[in-house]
Design brief:
Elements lengths: L2 H12 L8 H36 L35 E10 L2 E13 L2 E2 L4 E2 L12 E5 L6 E4 L3 E2 L5 E14 L4 E13 L2 E13 L1
Antiparallel strand pairs: 1-2, 2-8, 3-4, 3-7, 5-6, 5-9, 9-10
Length: 212
């Protein structure tokens, strides 16, 4: 070390320069700056964590196995459907034709029934009627009215509707003969009951009779 450098060093040690600020204040300012930086970092980390949690929750399957809800365009939509709806079959069609013959005030009513119906079972034996049974006798009964006097009809007896065997047929029979008390127009109504896919069902028919 030269004499000049040695002299300057001794002077610096003997008479140090005054501090630019109070040491405690300078330290406080540095600590406060560090705390601000840490707070800012924590806030950024918290925001990033919240976004990650929200993203994770959006991909979590709901309780019960339902897919997550998303509003992304083009995303597949989940459609919840129940069991398929089964349309019940209609009963076999039965056609009824009313065939009146009018002579004065006397009307003879013939009826033709035709179509498809299930053969009922006889009770208490619980056996099917023979397949050769006339089509009318497969019915559960008939009801009719001439629009005057007492209504009429027939009872099918102790029959149960079962869908074991279907039969197609037709029958024409005499329902009844009626003589009106005075001339006029009268409504004749008729219905017959057969065994169908959903149980016993009625087929109705009517016509207007004019007597003089």
């Amino acid at each position: 070390m030269t004499d000049d450098l040695k002299s300057r060093f001794e002077q610096l040690v003997a008479d140090p320069p005054p501090p630019s600020a109070v040491p405690s204040e300078a330290v406080f300012n540095r600590v406060r700056t560090v705390r601000r930086r840490r707070a800012t970092g924590v806030a950024l980390v918290a925001a990033a964590g919240a976004a990650a949690v929200a993203l994770a929750l959006g991909n979590v399957t709901d309780i019960g196995g339902a897919p997550p809800v998303t509003n992304s365009p083009g995303a597949p939509k989940s459609v919840i459907t129940g069991p398929p709806t089964v349309t019940p079959k209609p009963p076999p069609p039965i056609e009824v034709q009313l065939l009146p013959t009018v002579k004065g005030r006397t009307v003879t009513m013939n009826v033709k029934v035709s179509g498809k119906a299930f053969i009922p079972t006889v009770q208490p034996e619980n056996t099917l009627l023979p397949a050769t049974t006339p089509f009318l006798d497969l019915s559960g009964g008939t009801d009719f009215s001439f629009g005057e006097g007492m209504p009429g009809g027939s009872d099918g007896g102790a029959l149960d509707c079962t869908t074991k065997q279907l039969k197609q047929g037709s029958d024409t029979y005499l329902a009844d003969t009626h003589t009106y008390k005075k001339p006029g127009s009268y409504k004749f109504t008729y219905r017959v009951m057969y065994c169908g896919t959903k149980g016993w069902f009625y087929t109705n028919a009517s016509t207007t009779l004019t007597v003089r």
